Amino acid sequence: MDTFRQLEVLSDEQLVEHANRGDAQSPAAFETLYRRHRDTVLRLARRYTRGDEALALDAAQETFIYLLGKFPPPPENQLTLTAKLTTFLFPVARHAALSATKKKARLRLTTGDALPEPIAESPIPLDDGLDALLGRLSDEHCEVVLLRFVDDMTVPEIARALDIPQGTVKSRLHHAVAQLRRDPATKKYFELP
């Protein structure tokens, strides 16, 4: 069995332990984490860049470069998970996407030119129906729905990842679920409470 197949069955915590060792399996452990979480990080980045594919890809890349920097050497830089890996990744992705969007807006103001819209297709295809369904939600509602129902995070984990109170997470989930229930397409993607 090859290294990637062996690592795919491990939990995120176990993969982080492998990556922290700095041994021969570390690059494969990081790549397994990347493969496991790239779609979700890219989807989140797309939401914050308002669908700008180039900015979203840059933000996702920055997120994983930041994660890679948390692995040895040096040992004092090791990543210690206190929650799910996504709780660590989402604030980084959110910050990278918002920073890229602000930078692009400043560039437009400075040059006075409209930048050409990106034409590249995503290398990681997302279901258009799901994207359209989530596009009907506000950014805040979409974010908590993705974290709760797609990434299976708990309310406390979402609150930590977004740095907001748990009550705010519950409120956003409540309003988002109410809105999603009104759309018949929801049943194809989510099992709502």
UniProtKB/TrEMBL annotation:
Gene Ontology MF terms in the entry: DNA binding; sigma factor activity
Any Pfam family matching the protein: Sigma70_r4
InterPro entries, per the entry: RNA_pol_sigma-70-like, RNA_pol_sigma-70_dom, RNA_pol_sigma70_r2, RNA_pol_sigma70_r4, RNA_pol_sigma_r2, RNA_pol_sigma_r3/r4-like, WH-like_DNA-bd_sf
UniProtKB keywords: DNA-binding, Sigma factor, Transcription, Transcription regulation
Record domain RNA polymerase sigma-70 region: where: 33-106, 133-181
Record GO biological process: DNA-templated transcription initiation
Gene3D superfamilies, per the entry: 1.10.1740.10, Winged helix-like DNA-binding domain superfamily/Winged helix DNA-binding domain (1.10.10.10)
The keyword DNA repair is annotated on this UniProt entry: no
Keyword DNA-binding found: yes
Family: Belongs to the sigma-70 factor family. ECF subfamily.
Xref: PANTHER family: RNA POLYMERASE ECF-TYPE SIGMA FACTO (PTHR43133), RNA POLYMERASE SIGMA FACTOR HI_1459-RELATED (PTHR43133:SF8)
Name of the protein in its database record: RNA polymerase sigma-70 factor (ECF subfamily)
Species assigned in the record: Algisphaera agarilytica
Organismal lineage: Bacteria, Pseudomonadati, Planctomycetota, Phycisphaerae, Phycisphaerales
